[in-house]
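Extended Data, panel c. Modelled sequence:
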Amino acid sequence: MCSELKEKAMNRRIFSHVLTACFAGALLAGGVAVHATEEAPDALIKRTSTEVLDIIKADKAIQSGDVGKIIALVDDKVMPHVNFTRMTAATVGRNWRQATPEQKKRLQDEFKTLLVRTYSGALSQVKDQTVSVKPLRAASTDTEVIVRTEVIGRSEPIQLDYRMEKTTTGWKIYDLNILGIWMVETYRTQFAQEISAKGVDGLIAALVQRNKSSAGAQKS
């Protein structure tokens, strides 16, 4: 994760919980799709976060960092409730509009892999965490909201907020805030540096290399 987040977390233990919260509470905000249009965004976050935490706690392979099972879980439970195209586009910034369809697809694929591999090592930290959802401050007519939560475990509660949008297929997550730091903004800064130096293809190449290095480290 980024150096800013590490500094904010203050120590390795809290940082591990932050990663767990981010992955399990936000990017793992999945669930049964049939309920998507029936639930308020805060209710969706509460129900599905609890469901996925229960899945992780019961699956030893996921707890040990089995990337294949993690990816399968993400595809099954996460992606139906995340606007990942919007998330990736916002992270890439203005350069997204100039990217070709093939570049956009590769950016989404590599960014997804980056997030999955970043958080997979933290899943072994899932023990007794629960999610507390704060009262939603939004009007019934709002189409974009921020759902504010805390992940509660043995350490201090972790602030975890979600930016969500209302779509024809239900509420979707497109950004998240961990301990006061919005993920999209943080990655946008990193990605802008790569694009400025080597263009969109350079960013893709950097993500590919980063993911390969991460995969090698997890196997060793």
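Residues 1-22, 28-37 have pLDDT under 50 and may be disordered. This feature is highlighted in the accompanying rendering.
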